[in-house]
Every structure is written in C-alpha cells, then in structure tokens.
Amino acid sequence: MALADGHLPVLPLGADKRPLGNCRDCTNLACGGRPNMKTPGPCVCPWPCHGWAAATTNPSVLASRQWGMAWRRARSIGYHPGGAGVTVVDLDNTDAVDWARTALPPTTTVETTRGEHWIYSGTVRSVNKVREGVDIKSFMSYARWLGPGTGAMTDVPDAVHDLVEQKPAARPAPRAVPVAAPAGGGRCPHRSPVYLERGIAMAEQRITAATSGVHATVYRTFLAVLSAHGRCGCLTDAHIGRLFTAAQAKGESPRHCTDAWANATTVLGI
User: Fold this and answer.
1) Which 3 state secondary structure label does DSSP give 87?
2) Cα 37 from Cα 270, distance rounded (Å)
3) Which terminus of the chain has fewer CB atoms gathered within 10 Å of its CB, N or C?
C-alpha cells in the first residue's frame, strides 16, 4: 500500500519471480486481455491477471479478496516501471555492472541477487538482451521491488536510447490454431455478400454497444471476425476500415486498433 501511495503500480510475484498465472477465465486471452496497453491496470477480471498489465495503485483493488489471496501466495512484489515513469536497466552479472559503470551516468542503484538495477527517470520501449547480461525494462514489462536504492535518480541517458533503438521490436511467434477445412470441396464459404455484410455489421454493433471494457471488446471482436473470415480472403480494406472506425468512435486510438488487429492475427496464426 505504501508503494501504491507513492504512485508505483505493484503486482504480486511468485516463487519463480514471475507474475502469478492467469485465472481460468483469462487463460489464452479468453477475456480479451490487455495485450496492447502501455498503462497498468487489470482487465475486467478481478484477479491479478496478465502480468505487468495487472500492476495497479488502486487501494480498493490491492485490498480486494482476490488480490488478498494472491498476496498470500506471493513471494515478492513486482512493479511496472513504465507506469511509474521510470526505466530499469537490469544488469544481470558483474560484467554487465562493470560495463554500466563506464558507459552510463550514475543514477539510483539497487542491488539484486546477481547484479544491480540502475533506475532512470523517463520511459522507453522495453527490450531484453540489448547486450550480454543487460535488459531494459520500462513500458510493458515488470521488475522486482528490492528497495528504494541509493543515489539520486537521473534522466534516461542517450546510451540507453541507443541500445533500445538498435534492437528491432520483438514480434510474438505465431501460435497455430487448428482450423477445419472450408466446406464445399475447398471453396470459400464466405463469398456470399449477405453473409459477410451481416458479420461485419454485427461486429460494428458489438463495438458500438460496449459501455465498459472497450479495449477488451474491440480485441475480442477483431478476433471473432478474423476467426470467421481471416483465412479465405473475404476481408477487404473497406471492411477493416469499418471496424476501425467503430472502435475509434468509442475512443480507441488508430495505434491501438492496429495493435489489436495485429495481435489477433498473431494469436490465430494468420
């Protein structure tokens, strides 16, 4: 609670120093999840699911029955650096620490079991293995809370920005999903304009009718449309544009629409 009061979004970590696993309702992103968000906070699920995205400063959530059960299982506390406006340079061994002492400006330093965390003010894209033994943790990542550390915090240096930029953004590996062969001897069953139009109209209506959990609704709707029409060439830019327009009318940004669509195609292995 003290960390949350200090605007540090926290979450429970298990004995393996990782976030606790998703609940049954959230397994395989069945709930829609929060795969594209750059701000902490749980999905509609009351449990601390979805790793870094569950990190929160909300005292009501932290003190809830579900989170209380999770805290009793936890072995350490994690936090979302990006949500706190900081970047953690995770130095995993003595060689990495020696490199940082010559290549990076001094900042707040926290000792870890194998090395050190150097914490800078400001946020960047999170990237693992920018060099041997060095991970950058900020947005869409988590770090263990090991204490406030020592030394005055300074801004993210150019050297860290350079390390992040030299690494391309990682794309999740496609996960194969079994799909039945098209009916009619291999012919696409969705070529009927009426069938496709009805499906797109229902998807638009589902997004428009959302009163809460818009991010999750948009993702689930994109996933449903792609499950039905994504493999047979039925969808056109006009169809996708209609879905994006409906989502943006509910407050989604163009970037979030693009990310949600990309994640849905990845999950389906398209």
Assistant:
1) strand
2) 22
3) N
Residue 129, pLDDT > 70, answer: yes
| Predicted confidence (pLDDT) per residue in 74-88, tens digit | 999 999 998 899 999
Among residues 5, 139, 147, the alpha carbon closest in space to that of 62 is found at 5
Q: What is the mean pLDDT of residues 137-157?
A: 94
CA distance 156 to 207: 39
Angular region, 204: left φ>0, alpha ψ -120 to 50, beta rest: alpha
Q: Are 264 and 222 a contacting pair, CB within 8 Å?
A: yes
- Please report which confidence band the pLDDT of residue 189 belongs to, taking 50, 70 and 90 as the band edges: low
Residue 168 has pLDDT above 70, yes or no: no
C-alpha Rg value of the chain to the nearest Å: 21
Q: Which residues contact 45 (CB under 8 A, 6 or more apart)?
A: 23, 25, 26, 31
Residue 143 β-bridge partners = 79
Q: How many whole angstroms separate alpha carbon 193 and alpha carbon 162?
A: 50
Farthest-apart Cα atoms in the chain, separation: 69
Tokens of 157: 């240096």
The amino acid occupying position 125 is R
Give the whole-angstrom CA distance, residue 99 versus residue 236.
51
